[in-house]
UniProtKB/TrEMBL annotation:
<dbReference type="InterPro" id="IPR036561">
    <property type="entry name" value="MAM33_sf"/>
</dbReference>
<comment type="similarity">
    <text>Belongs to the MAM33 family.</text>
</comment>
<dbReference type="GO" id="GO:0042256">
    <property type="term" value="P:cytosolic ribosome assembly"/>
</dbReference>
<dbReference type="GO" id="GO:0005759">
    <property type="term" value="C:mitochondrial matrix"/>
</dbReference>
<protein>
    <recommendedName>
        <fullName>Complement component 1 Q subcomponent-binding protein, mitochondrial</fullName>
    </recommendedName>
</protein>
<dbReference type="InterPro" id="IPR003428">
    <property type="entry name" value="MAM33"/>
</dbReference>
<dbReference type="Pfam" id="PF02330">
    <property type="entry name" value="MAM33"/>
</dbReference>
Length: 291
């Protein structure tokens, strides 16, 4: 009987068929094993049998085998029936209805998010900048002979939820555009004890002026010596002279902060934010499941 045809039987018929198949297999094994010396000691359940070839002894052997198999099946069935339905492996009654539903949802959600994850391993470098990760904060650094360029941003609340996802209605399974992380970021240009600090943010396509396609803009500008503190003066990008504003953008571009680099920064932030989100789901699932 093939495995495919066997699976087509109802559960009760499969159990009955399995018993008779196992019985005939065991009967053949017993007949072969009786030829060995000391078989009565090895086969303890049927050690009082004179010959397994006699019909009454075959019935007794089968009865013993059936009893042992039945007891083991009942134990396995009892263990399985006592397991929690949420898949945590705990015994029934450990979790409330809300906990079970939450764990079941999180299990499916984690699988779906991992399937949609485009970047499995977060890179340690982006266009010459070395990446350092600390929780939700990302630091990109590049050192030259004259200065240190440091870019810092935080992926918390950085996902662009205002943008409308693009949907191709001509496809059988329309693809929904992914959410993108576009965090504000700070650029520090450090020379010795002096630092120029420029706070930047992404410019929405709808706010980009005609003839200008800058991916980011200047929110704030400051310069200070030593460590930054609240007494450091800063000026808003909105009140900067327009020509000075453009010159600072050009200056940053020469340092490597081009539109292309900032787009790469957004891709990096998106991948890291997605990874952090999956980690949050996994942590929540383990906490609720009590693992």
């Amino acid at each position: 009987m093939s495995s495919e045809s066997f699976r087509q039987f109802p559960a009760r018929n499969r159990l009955r068929c399995t018993f008779f198949i196992n019985f005939h297999k065991m009967n053949s094994i017993l007949k072969a094993a009786i030829r060995l010396n000391g078989i009565r000691t090895v086969l303890h359940p049927v050690k009082n049998l004179v010959s397994v070839s006699r019909p009454q002894n075959q019935i007794l052997a089968a009865r013993n085998l059936w009893y042992m198999t039945s007891i083991q099946s009942q134990k396995l069935s009892a263990i399985h029936s006592n397991l929690c339905s949420c898949g945590c492996g705990s015994r029934k009654g450990v979790h409330t209805k809300a906990e079970k539903e939450l764990v079941e949802f999180l299990t499916e959600e984690i699988l779906a998010e991992r399937k949609a994850q485009k970047v499995k391993t977060i890179p340690t470098e982006i266009q010459g900048f070395t990446a350092s990760l600390n929780g939700a904060e990302v630091t990109l650094t590049k050192k030259t002979d004259s200065e240190l360029i440091k870019i810092t941003f935080n992926v918390n609340n950085s996902v662009d939820t205002d943008a409308e996802p693009e949907v191709n209605e001509n496809l059988d399974k329309p693809e929904i555009g992914e959410l993108k992380s576009k965090p504000s970021f700070k650029v520090d240009l450090v020379r010795g004890d002096n630092t120029i600090s420029v706070l930047c943010s992404f410019v929405p396509p709808s706010e980009q002026e005609d003839g200008y396609n800058d991916s980011f803009g200047i929110d704030e500008l400051s310069i200070y010596s030593g460590e930054w503190n609240e007494n450091v003066y800063s000026v808003s990008g909105e009140v900067l002279d327009s020509y000075l504003y453009d010159l600072i953008l050009n200056y940053l571009e020469e340092k490597g902060l081009t539109n292309e680099f900032v787009d790469k920064l957004s891709e990096y932030s998106t991948a890291y934010e997605h990874s952090a989100y999956i980690g949050l789901l996994e942590g929540l699932s383990k906490f609720v499941a009590g693992k």
